[in-house]
Amino acid sequence: MKVENLSSSHVTDSDKTSKVDEKDAPANASPKVTVIEKQTQRRIFKIIVIGDSNVGKTCLTYRFCSGKFPDKTEATIGVDFRERTIDVDNEQIKLQLWDTAGQERFRKSMVQHYYRNVHAVVFVYDVTKVSSFESMPGWIEECDRHNLNKEIPRILVGNKCDMSNRVAVNTNMAQKFADSHNMPLFETSAKDDEKANHVEAIFMTLAHKLKNSKPMMSPYMSTRGRDLSNVQVVKVGKTAQGLGIEENPDNKCAC
Ligand SMILES: Nc1nc2c(ncn2[C@@H]2O[C@H](COP(=O)(O)OP(=O)(O)OP(=O)(O)O)[C@@H](O)[C@H]2O)c(=O)[nH]1
């Protein structure tokens, strides 16, 4: 397990302030110290990012959490977590992004965990690969099979727009699909530095929706009530070899 520090802060900040009450303190006695402990809690929202393998889920979440395109990615095994604390209308909220494996064989063991206590879903397809768009109904069905609350915010993201000469998924078609499932469509690129603000805006839009929504489960806790306040970024089983799973050379990333 590899731990990366991409997180900007912890969920619970504890500020201790010491105050000396001089009136009560005899001249030769040590001053009486009153400790005022102020606890502030931040809401944590769990967002799962799903879609076929190689559509750019890791790159999108990395772009949002670290502000850049990763130098190198590998197929996700199980799930990767990334977190970022943001300010939404003067409230600090933490978005916990669950970057899930697109490959079926790397999902099996973790799939139950993805769908527990989810606050929002990001569906990702690759605009240059029609099959990844055609898989979208299957991903929505998977959410339904795991009884995901239909009321939680969902967004559809077409990634890799920088490859403009290879776009194969028509925007109108994608928009119709998004409309029919009552979710907004964003077409973007995790890679294009000029689109960095756009990726930012996508997750900020989601954050606003979350802030104003009334989640079914406490956003102060996550996964089975475990307080994840101190979890930073944890990569679970990043390489196939580490898990004793045979790697598929065809699915190795090109970046
Ligand atoms: N041109 C371009 N390539 C991208 C973009 N986003 C990701 N890629 C590339 O697409 C490949 C797959 O990216 P990942 O982010 O690992 O894809 P993934 O969806 O997380 O894949 P799995 O972990 O297998 O589910 C890598 O080679 C990336 O460099 C993008 O916006 N534009």
Automatic annotation (TrEMBL):
PANTHER family: PTHR47978. One of its GO terms (biological process) is Rab protein signal transduction. GO terms for cellular component: Golgi apparatus. It catalyses: GTP + H2O = GDP + phosphate + H(+). InterPro entries: P-loop_NTPase, Rab33A/B, Small_GTP-bd, Small_GTPase. Its cofactor is Mg(2+). It is a lipid-anchor. Belongs to the small GTPase superfamily. Rab family. This is small monomeric GTPase. It is an enzyme of class 3 (hydrolase). It comes from Pinctada imbricata (Atlantic pearl-oyster). It is found in: Endomembrane system. Residues 1-32 are annotated as: Disordered. Residues 1-11 have a biased composition (Polar residues). Residues 12-25 have a biased composition (Basic and acidic residues). The lineage of its organism: Eukaryota, Metazoa, Spiralia, Lophotrochozoa, Mollusca. It comes from the Eukaryota. Its EC number is 3.6.5.2.
